[in-house]
Each structure stands twice: as structure tokens, then as C-alpha cells.
Specification:
The structure holds two protein chains of two kinds. Chain A has 13 helices and three strands; from the N terminus they run αααααβααααααααββ. By secondary structure, chain A is mainly α. Chain A has a two-stranded antiparallel ribbon with strand order 2-3. The N terminus and C terminus of chain A are likely disordered. By secondary structure, chain B is mainly beta. In chain B, 0% of the residues lie in helices and 46% in strands. Chain B is built from no helices and 35 strands. In chain B, the strands form ten sheets. In chain B, strands 1-2-3-4 form a four-stranded antiparallel beta sheet, with no helix packed on it. A four-stranded antiparallel beta sheet of chain B has the order 5-6-7-8, with no helix packed on it. A four-stranded antiparallel beta sheet of chain B has the order 9-10-11-12, with no helix packed on it. The chains are: A mainly alpha, B mainly beta. β1 of chain A pairs antiparallel with β8 of chain B.
Amino acid sequence: MGDWMTVTDRGLSSESKTISQYTSEIKMSPSSLYSQQVLCSSIPLSKNVHSFFSAFCTEDNIEQSVSYLDQELTTFGFPSLYEESKGKETKRELNIVAVLNCMNELLVLQRKNLLAQENVETQNLKLGSDMDHLQSCYSKLKEQLETSRREMIGLQERDRQLQCKNRNLHQLLKNEKDEVQKLQNIIASRATQYNHDMKRKEREYNKLKERLHQLVMNKKDKKIAMDILNYVGRADGKRGSWRTGKTEARNEDEMYKILLNDYEYRQKQILMENAELKKVLQQMKKEMISLLSPQKKKPRERVDDSTGTVISDVEEDAGELSRESMWDLSCETVREQLTNSIRKQWRILKSHVEKLDNQVSKVHLEGFNDEDVISRQDHEQETEKLELEIQQCKEMIKTQQQLLQQLATACDDDTTSLLRDCYLLEEKERLKEEWSLFKEQKKNFERERRSFTEAAIRLGLERKAFEEERASWLKQQFLNMTTFDHQNSENVKLFSAFSGSSDWDNLTVHSRQPQKKPHSVSNGSPVCMSKLTKSLPASPSTSDFCQTRSCISEHSSINVLNITPEEIKPNQVGGECTNQKWSVASRPGSQEGCYSGCSLTYTNSHVEKDDLP
Amino acid sequence: MNFSEVFKLSSLLCKFSPDGKYLASCVQYRLVVRDVNTLQILQLYTCLDQIQHIEWSADSLFILCAMYKRGLVQVWSLEQPEWHCKIDEGSAGLVASCWSPDGRHILNTTEFHLRITVWSLCTKSISYIKYPKACLQGITFTRNGRYMALAERRDCKDYVSIFVCSDWQLLRHFDTDTQDLTGIEWAPNGCVLAVWDTCLEYKILLYSLDGRLLSAYSAYEWSLGIKSVAWSPSSQFLAVGSYDGKVRILNHVTWKMITEFGHPATINNPKTVVYKEAQKSPQLGLGCLSFPPPGAGAGPLPSSESKYEIASVPVSLQTLKPVTDRANPKIGIGMLAFSPDSYFLATRNGDFAVLSLCWHLSGDSMALLSKDHVCLCFLETEAAVSTACRQLGGRT
């Protein structure tokens, strides 16, 4: 009993769980709930059966429990447990039979209930499984529904497409039908036209037939004639001429002449048009070439190829141009050349313009990423910079010019001296050196001169002695020969005057006198020394002037062999000497080059004096 | 704009003389010659029957009056009013009659186009030309009057004969590659002859004066073809108007199409100027004129009846869809007229109620004529301004 109870209990509990599960999913009918309640309520059989049993009725409360049971049973409709009481106040006696019956009844009831419970449980199980089954069916059906829906959509789509196609085909069909209809209409209209014409012709034909019939029948016919008052003269006043072969030929000629004239006229028009168009084309070509040729100077990296072609094309076209202009004929080759060159140029121009467009668009789109592309702002900045530079350069040039001008013009002593100092330092040093050199040389020359003069004096003395000797000899000779020559004595005098004196003043005087006999002194004539550059101007104004002086001094150091005493006035150089001639000119204050040359020549009489302008 | 009094006229027979001095008009069987300046009646001639056709001779000395029903042609002289000439075709009948360019020969086309009789007013000679083609424009003379081109048809083939007008010598005779020649026309320079085919086939052939085929042009096949052809006065362009509502211009150097002008039902191009008659009365207006060069300017208001205003683009032209299941449908370019300086081309498309249009010799104005309206258009060529003024004229 107990085991059975527990088994059922377990099963019941598990069932209750499942039942509770299912109740959450499936709404149960109230009857089932009630049965559940009944089931729950009919589990008075807990595990501890015995304790429960003993809990209700103990030995103390038998009467109470009996009465309680009795009450309960009576309420349930069972007969009372007590015997029928004879009197109300007497204690009722327990009716064992009734109790046993009641117990039996209860047992039977219990069995029934259990049976019912089992049934219900099985039914529950069944229902659960049914539910599962239904659930799975439901999900499957749902899936099927989804798939079928999708299929349906797909099919609908296909259907729509097919309908579209159908419509298109219908449209095409309609078009074709329209076309057919149109053609049929055309045919119909032609047919009507044909018919109309045919009818007309038929009518004419019928009329003809009738007329012919009439004519045939009608013998008396009106005369076909012209009744004219008098014949009119021809329009051009001439007489009519017979139609002969000549006239026919003439007519043919005229016809051909007319045709030829027309053709010539048209050809002339076309030639004129051609020439104009050619001119326009050539002009276009020239302009295109000139447009494209600046490209040569700025070769870009990207357009290397094109510039290469441009250059080659330009050269080619230049050649072609000359050729074309020379000929200016309408021969095939020239025409082709012209068109080809124009096409070439146009292609180049087009590609160039396209490139420019691309670059412009790139600039607009990308900004300053490209190196080759100079944005407008950069360009402007560059131009500004360049302008500034130009300004600066101009200013520099101006200042330099001013400085140069200042140097050129006469300035204050201070400034000039300063200037002199700052510009000519090097020169000055050099000059000093040369001066020292010069002075040394001068000393040497002095010495030499002195020696020479001494030698000359000695020479003179010797000469004197010799002359005296000679004179005595001549005297003797003369005395011997008894003839005298005055001139000789004069010459001797002159000669002696010249040769004898070393006084330059006399020399100068004498030098001015015209000489009858230029006599060259061969033996060591006294030489003049040119006084050169002794008078360096106190204030040289230009570096050039100083330079001329220096070069003069150089020259003098090279060229001058002898030094003349100070005879010559400053700034006036001239050589006065019987024996020499030189011309030295220097122009102070001018930038024209110095003209210096010391040439010493041994001439007797020719003396020049250069006056400086 | 001034109008003279209304003169009676029958069958729309009213022609100015070529020298512009006289105006000839017909009333029933009378021929009235007026002076152009004074409109005084100078001469009055009476013909034998109702006149169907009058034509001035080229030197304005003679007028011919043709009476087709009687087969008679009467020629009157202006110099000598008493001079008369009557040409009776008799049983041959008369279908058409015209002058030769020298003004001394009359070409009568007999009935059924059996032959063309060339009557000479100078001599007694009569010439016959057989098998002339019965088409709209079968005879054409060159502007200088030297040559005449005639369309012929023998044995179901088309031919063109070129005659020298001075002595009617047959110069050239050649066949044309057409199915059914409809018209021929000389170029103004007299060196090219345009020959076009029936409207069932779009084909226009160009022949040189000496009969060589220069070129053939066909814009499309199968649809109805050429409706009207016009040479430009400089002979540089040939305008071909067709049933598809387009004018194609051929150039004289290559004889290929250089441009084509369409006539769309709605005008969208803002450059075209559209003059619209202000609808005062419910009658059909003259329609719209559109000039290829852009123009501007409002139309003045000369008469109180109606005026033109510039309609703003887009403009849809009112068109009645013509009946296409009948012969000779009223579609396509029916009229072409070049301005004398070859700058402008006036065209009439569809069934617009313009009956005739002609340019002034100076090229700066154009006159349009409808059933009961006259429209004068002026073009200020400096600023390309055009003004249009319209007058209501009585039935003339």
C-alpha cells in the first residue's frame, strides 16, 4: 500500500509538474483544473502515512473523531455511523455495520477515484504527446508556410517580369501591326490613286472612242485652219530661215556653248570658293602653329612627347607653308598636304586644350597637389616676389649710377682726397714704388749725364785743341795755298757755336733759326732729356688721369734714353732739341686715353712743340 | 493699304502683262485690257465664246484667249486693236494653249493630248508634235526662251524632247527612267532639266541640256512621293516637296540633299516666329507662317477687321486630318516658292487655305492669297524683322 502510494505519488508529482508545464502553455479547461484540484486534494497520502493516521484519532478523542467522521460522512451523503437513537439524550452507539459499509463505500470511492485519476493521467499524457505532436506539426507548417510564401513572392516576381515581357511583346506586336497597317494604308492609297487614274484614263479612252466614232461618222468636218488678218513679223525682226543641216549644226553648237558657259561659270565660282577656303585654311594653320610654337620654350614634363611632335610638326609645316605658298596650285598633293597638316595641327591643338582643361579641372578639384600646376595664388605670389626683386634691382642700379656720376664730376678736395685715398691706394703704392725706381734711375741718369757732360767738355776741349791744330794746319795750308774761304770759317763758327756750347738757352735760340745745312751730329751729341710728368698735377681728378700719368711714366721709363733739363713749362711738353723729336701729349681731366710716346730721334733741326689743347 | 473698286472677273482670269503696264481680265467672253496705273480700260475685245484661258505674249504685244469648248484660240494685238487672229482646231479639240517664248508661235494641245500643233503667226507653217504626255506640266520653256522641253509618251515609255524654239528643230530626244512622268521644269540657268515621276514613286531625275542624265534622287520608297518642285532663282537649289510633309533641298553641285524641312504639327523651336490670326470671326484663318530665320516684331493693325499676333511657342497648328482614302489627298507640300534672292523658301503644307503665294521681286515681301483673304508679309532684312498685315478683300 505504501509503495503503491509512493509510486503514484511520484508519478502524480511528476505529472503535476508536467501538468503545470502544460498549463503554462496550454490553457486547460476548468474541468481539468478541477480534476487537478481533486488530484491534489486527493493526495492526502503523504509519505508518513502512519503518523498521519495516528494524528487524527488517538485513544483520547475517539468519540470526537467518531462524531467528526459521522458529520463528514453525513455531509457526503453517507449514512450515519451511529445507530438510530431511541432517545435524544442517550449516547449513540456506533453502528459497526454502518461504519463497515461506509468504509467499504469509501474504499470503492477511493478505487474509483484512483481509476479516474489514472485515466486522467493517461489522458493527460496523451494530450501532452498530442500537443507535442501538434507543436512540431505547427512549426513544420510554419516553415512550410514561409517557404511557400517566399516561393510565392518569387513566382510573383517572375510573373511580373513575364507580364512586362508580355507587355513589351504586345507593344512590339502593336508596332508591327501599326507598321503593317501603315503599309496597308499606303498600298490602299496607291490603289485608290491607281484606280482613280485608271478610271480617268478609261474615261478618256471612252471619250476618244466616241470622238473617233464621231469623226468616222461625221464626214463634214470643220476645217482646221487659222484665220489671221495679216502675218506678224518675227519678234527679232529678221526673216525666217529654212531649216537645213547648217542650222541644225548651229543649234547644236549653240547648245553646247550654253552648256560650256554654264560649266565654266560654275567652275569659276567653285575655284574662287576653293581659293578663299584655302586661304582661310592656311591662315588657320599659321595661327595654330603660332599658338602652339610658344610651347617649345616651356617644355613640360608631361607633354614632352607632344612638344616633340609640335616642334617637328612646326618645322615640317613651316617648310610646307613655304612650299604651298610658292605653288598655290590646286594639285592633289598640295591639297592633301594642306588638309593633312591642318588636321595634324588641329589634333595637337585639341590635345593641348584637353590637357589644359584637365589641368584646370584638376586644380579645381584637387587643390595644389600637382607640382606642375601652379595655382593662381602661388602664381600671384611669385609675380609679387619678382616685382619686388625688380624694384630692388632698379634701386640698386640707380644708386650705382649716382655713385658713378659723383665720381665723374668734380667734388670737394676732402671728398676727392678721400676718394683718391680709398680708390687709388693700390695705385698709389705702386706709383710710389715706381717713383722711387724712377728717382733712382734719374740719379743714375744724372750721374751719367754728368759723366757725359764731362766727357763732352773733355771732348770739347779736345775738339778745341784739335780745331786749333787743324786751324794751324789749315793756316799752314792756306799759307801754302794762298786761298781763303769765308764760309768755311763761318761754318766753323756756327758749328763751333753749336757744338761747343752746352747752354740750352742758346740752343733754343739757335734751334729756331733756319739752318741751311742740317748737320747730323754723329758723335755723341748731347741729348735732351724730356721732362716728363714732372708736374703731376696737384689734384688729379680722375683715376684715369692718374693712370695716364702712370702709363706715361712707364713709357717714359722705357722709352726715354736721356733726360733733359728743366726747360719745359709745366703742362706743356715739348721737346726742343736739335737732335730729337718727341711728342708727348696728355690730357688732364679727360677720360680719353693718354697719348704718349716718346720717340727720340736723332734729327738735326726739326723741332716740334706740341701745345696741348 | 488702298483698294480700288471691284471689277468683274470670271474664272479667275486676270493677268498682268509681262512689262507690267497692262492688266488683262476676262468677263465671260470679253477681254478687258486696263492700264495698270490708272486702271482705265484701254482695250476691249470680244471673243466668240466663253474664255477659259488667257495668256500674254512675252513681249506684251499680244494676248491669246483660248476657248476650249469650241476649240478656238483668238489672239488680240495691243498695238493694232483691229488686228485679229483666230485659230480653229476644229475636230481636234483643244485642251491647252500657250505662247512660245518669242511671242510668235502658239502651241495648242489638242484633245486627248493627241498632238501639239505649233501655229506660227509669222509664217504659214504649222508644226505638229506627236505623242505629248498628258501630265500636269508637260511643256516647259527655258528662261532665255531658246529651248523647249516636252514630255512625251510612246509605247508606255516616257520620253523628253528638247526643241530649239527658233526653228522648232528637235535637238535631243531621250527616254527617262520614270514610270509615269508627271512634270518637267528647266532650271533658271537653262542648263538642267528636272524631271519627276508620278506621286506613287518618289523619283526626280536631272538631265543636262544635251540630254545626259546628271543625277537621280529618291528620298524614300513606297509612300506617296513628290507633290511639288521648285528651282531657286539662282539655280543653286532644287526644292522638292513631297506628300510626307517635308521639303528637301538638293544642291546643284552634287545633286544630293543638303537639308530637309519638316512641317510638324506642333512648333516647338523657339527660334521660329509664328503669326497667328487673332480669331475674330469664326472663319478659317490663313494659318501660321513660320520663317526659318528668327524674326521678331509685332504686326501692326492696319484694318479693324483682324490682326496678327505673335503666338508663343509651342504652337500647335490646327489641321484637319485629311481624308486619305481618296485620290490626290490634301496632304503634303503643295506649294513652293523661293524668294528672288534665294534666301527664303515659302511652303504650304497640307490643306491650309492658301491658294497662291508669290514673292515680290525685291525679295522683301510676299503675298498670300486665300479664298477671300489677302495677306501681305514684309520682311525687314536688316534686323530680320517681319511684319504681317492682313487685309480683308472682297470676293475677287
